[in-house]
Write a structure and sequence with these properties.
The protein is mainly alpha-helical. Helices cover about 65% and strands about 5% of the residues. Strands 1-2 form a two-stranded antiparallel sheet.
C-alpha cells in the first residue's frame, strides 16, 4: 500500500489509506425483491406457463360462475348474432350488388333510348329544314310567276288598247 500525503498550511499529514476512485459507470440502485415463499424440497420457484394459464382459466371460470345465468345467455345470443350478422350483411351486400347491376343496365338502356331520341330529333330537324327550303323555293317561284303573269296582263292591256267596254 502506498501512503497518501496531504499538505495544508505547512502541516503534513500522513495517511496509510488510498483514496477511493470515483465510479466509472452509474451504479443501479439495489432491487428490493418481495420475500420468496418457502418451498418444500423438490418444488420449483418458477411457475410454468401451463400453471399460469391454468390459473388464468380458473380466474375466468370463477368470474363466469359469479355472473347470473341470464347474463351469460344474453352474451351467448349476442355472440351468435354477430355470426348471423355477418351472414346478413353479406346477403344485403349481394342484394345491393344485384340492384346496382340492374340499375346500371337500366341506365344503359335509357342512354340508348336517349341516343335514339336525339337521332330522331336531328332527323326531324333536317326534314324541317328541307321543307323550309322547299317552301321558300315555292314562294320565290310563286312570286316570280305572279310577276310574270301580271307583266303579261299589263302587256296585253297595252297591246290591245285596253280592256273592252262593258
Amino acid at each position: 500500500m502506498q501512503a497518501f500525503i496531504s499538505c495544508s498550511n505547512n502541516d503534513i499529514t500522513y495517511n496509510n489509506e488510498l483514496p477511493i476512485p470515483p465510479p466509472r459507470a452509474p451504479i443501479a440502485p439495489p432491487t428490493v425483491l418481495p420475500p420468496s415463499p418457502v418451498f418444500e424440497i423438490g418444488e420449483s420457484s418458477y411457475m410454468t406457463r401451463l400453471e399460469r394459464h391454468e390459473e388464468q382459466v380458473e380466474t375466468i371460470l370463477n368470474h363466469i360462475d359469479e355472473l347470473p345465468l341470464e347474463r351469460i345467455e344474453h352474451m351467448e345470443d349476442k355472440i351468435e348474432g354477430l355470426g348471423n350478422g355477418r351472414v346478413i350483411v353479406q346477403r344485403d351486400f349481394d342484394q345491393l350488388e344485384i340492384k346496382h347491376q340492374e340499375t346500371r343496365t337500366q341506365i344503359s338502356g335509357f342512354q340508348r333510348e336517349q341516343i335514339r331520341h336525339d337521332d330522331e330529333i336531328v332527323l326531324a330537324r333536317v326534314r324541317i329544314s328541307t321543307l323550309e327550303m322547299i317552301i321558300e323555293d315555292i314562294q320565290v317561284r310563286h312570286r316570280s310567276d305572279m310577276k310574270s303573269f301580271l307583266d303579261t296582263i299589263h302587256e296585253f292591256k297595252n297591246y290591245n288598247g285596253g280592256p273592252p267596254d262593258y
